[in-house]
Amino acid sequence: MNLTNCTKATEFVFVGLPKVLGLEGLMYAGIFFLYLLCLMGNGLIIVMVILDCHLQKPMYIFLSNLSCIDIGHTTTFIPKLLFNYLCAKNSICFNCCITQMFFYFFFGVTEYFIITLISVDRYLAICHPLRYATIMTSGVCLKLAIASWFAGFFSILYQTIMIPNLPYCTSNVINHFYCDVGPVLKIAGGDIQIIELFGFLVMVVVVMSSMISTLISYLFIIFTILRMPSTIRQQRAFSTCASHLIVVCMLYGSVFFVYLRPTVKNSSYSKMKTVSLMNTIVVPMLNPFIYTIRNNEVKEAVWKALRKKSLAFPKV
Asked: What's the distance, Cα to Cα, between the start and end of the chain in Å?
């Protein structure tokens, strides 16, 4: 291929979601509904942590960071997806695609660092309760959260800088419903092996280190819980950790299926769109409900806020 005569791509066209005859409108309405639930659920956690001083603890600070990530993660592509459907088009400008790709992976990679911090926080709270307050101080918690955001930013910076400089001569059609690295590299020209290798190594290091740290934390937690003399305390401890494990299983399961592959040229992304939907829409929507549905502190904070509001606006 003669890359010297290649005209720089100005826009990409999405293949979009899998076609379901007669049900496209219902499918997009469902995505919009899930997006609203994601915004409301995660937004509620952020607001409650800010307003209620009793929730300004390491666990809830990490959860509020996770909620910010989930809102940002879904907002990078769902509004564009819905806008394209309403306007009966499926395109995105070149720079918009690169920006979408950057923020999508920035939030996605940062999420694994925050998930790891939550598991370590639970390990310290359950296995070392007497030392927990001195180890996980508010200053340490804030530094760890900031470090996670910076680590997520620098982890994907190289790919984001290199991908826009690749030639896109043969096709501008992306076999996906958002700008994912794999489908974009699949239509790119030039030498993409270094970019592929670097991206694969980053995903392996980030995902595997996060998963191993989380598993080790929960192994220690389970051993500690089993040694507790009280059955009630065991049930409470298991209840606290079970929600996190559900999220971890869904998150790691989907990312292993979609992203942990060394090359993209021979990958069929049509088969992975359903898994991508779960990873990008369902998991962020479920996170606030899974983490808080059995959490009495959050429930009490919400009811307290509602009571204050009702007292501030008495019925006429």
From this structure: 76
